[in-house]
Design brief:
Blueprint (H helix, E strand, L loop, with lengths): L6 E6 L2 H12 L3 E5 L2 E6 L2 E7 L8 H5 L3 E7 L3 H10 L3 E8 L5 E6 L5 E6 L2
Parallel strand pairs: 1-4, 5-8
Antiparallel strand pairs: 2-3, 3-4, 6-7, 7-8
């Protein structure tokens, strides 16, 4: 059986506000915006951005909005990136520290509280 990667789902409260955040922070362009769904590609991976909707199962918002994504993003300048995150309504969740394997790493949250790991080669 062949298995392939499809997409990453990011739950948001308001697609239009989130679209602005992700375009400014990640430098992406959304392919389509038709609430409650939208999407963009980063590094060849599709990210599906969705609002809570009655078409989803009960409790969907609690599972997919404001969670630790377990997604690691890499940047060239972690301090500048995190300043941009905060200036666009996101927040610093974990201060930047140097890891034993040599990279700098921290955590930030988008405007809906979805948490991402951010790293920079040291």
């Amino acid at each position: 059986m062949k298995v392939s990667f499809s997409a990453v789902l990011i739950g948001v409260k308001d697609i239009i506000k989130s679209k602005d955040f992700y375009e400014n922070i990640l430098g992406v362009t959304f392919d389509e915006v038709r609430p409650p769904f939208s999407n963009f590609y980063l590094g060849g991976i599709e990210f599906m951005v969705e609002e809570n909707t009655p078409e989803r199962e009960a409790g969907w918002a609690e599972k997919y909005i404001g969670r630790d994504m377990g997604i690691c993003l890499q940047v060239e300048n972690i301090d500048e990136f995190l300043k941009e995150v905060v200036s666009h309504g996101g927040s610093l969740v974990k201060e930047v520290t140097k890891k034993p394997w040599g990279s700098l790493e921290g955590k930030f949250a988008d405007i809906d509280g979805n948490i991402f790991i951010i790293e920079q080669d040291a």
